Amino acid sequence: MSDSIPAPGGGATLGCSHVLLRVHDLPRAVADFRAAGFEVAYATAPEDKALHAHVWFPEGPVIELLSTPRGARWLRLPVSLRFGRGAGGRMVRWARQEEGFCDLALLVDQAALIARLRELAAQGVPFGRIVRWNRRRPDGATTRFSFAYPRAGRLPFLVTPYDPPQHPAHVRHPNGARALTTVVLGVSAADLPAVRRLVGDAPGIRLEEAPTTGVRALHLAGLTAPPQPELLHGAVLRPAGAEVPHTPHHEGPSTS
């Protein structure tokens, strides 16, 4: 498996958009990630009410620190009504789980999103509705994007590129990290056919056998050593090229 992500090709899924990391206390997590050598930017203002923060790289996938609103674990029905079938169970899972990776967002062009959802539904991977979302950034600008959640609560979801793009022109992490090159995605046997249809030949996503589907680790180019685990709120971050024993899924298209 290569630890480099080439430019997106013509496939419907362009690769990883971002990996969500569930944290209990967002300001503390932001402070800890900064202490671990990362630049971290709050996604919205004011910072004391923000629920998301980003670890950006000059290009490519992003790490998103995520907290959930108070009482979110009880909002399955309202969330499903607002965001579509499957959304409520997913967000309740985020709210109830311990700190650590909680989801994977796959990038799809805005113009291809509807066709992609129809294709997946025909292949037995149904989704809820498309949600068109606006986010007010700390600099006052508005970012627009769309997303859709699968009805199965542990499958990766789809999101379109941020419009306008948000990647900062210059990012220099003190720990040397330059890019998120590989997402190690554990996949249960039951979820494997659907995950393969979702991921396709998207670069930078490595599938491994696991009892439960979910992100297991991220590989970062330029990172010389794993940061102190106590600063990472359950995230597993490894230097790119640092191979560890794993059990790959051997059948189906390669994501190398």
Notes on the protein architecture:
- Helices cover 18% and strands 27% of the residues.
- Helix 2 crosses helix 3 (87-96).
- It has helices at 26-35, 76-83, 87-96, 113-122, 192-199; strands spanning 15-22, 41-42, 52-55, 62-66, 100-107, 131-136, 142-148, 157-159, 179-187, 205-209, 214-221, 237-239.
- It contains five helices and twelve strands.
- The strands form two sheets. It has an eight-stranded mixed β-sheet with strand order 2-3-4-1-5-8-7-6.
- The chain is globular, with a radius of gyration of 17 Å.
- Mean pLDDT is 86; it is low at 1-11 and 251-256.
- A hairpin with a 5-residue loop joins strand 6 (131-136) and strand 7 (142-148).
- With 256 residues, it is an alpha/beta fold.
